[in-house]
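Quarterly update from the structural biology core.
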Amino acid sequence: MLFAITKDNQLLRTNSEIVCEASAWFNLNKIEDGVGLAAVETMLYLLTADKKLCSMDMLHFRQS
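Predicted structure, tokenized:
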């Protein structure tokens, strides 16, 4: 699974957990001033421009 932040502050993820099989992006949420992403085990961390660190459980984003 691959995550990205766009210039217009959208948090996206690939439509497949296997990146080479991904064919589209899903819009997950609007993120205000996201400047960095990191993943550790099952957690996704987002750093904002005003130095706030947010965390999200990536298991929540898995497809059924």
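The CA atoms of residues 15 and 22 lie 6 Å apart.
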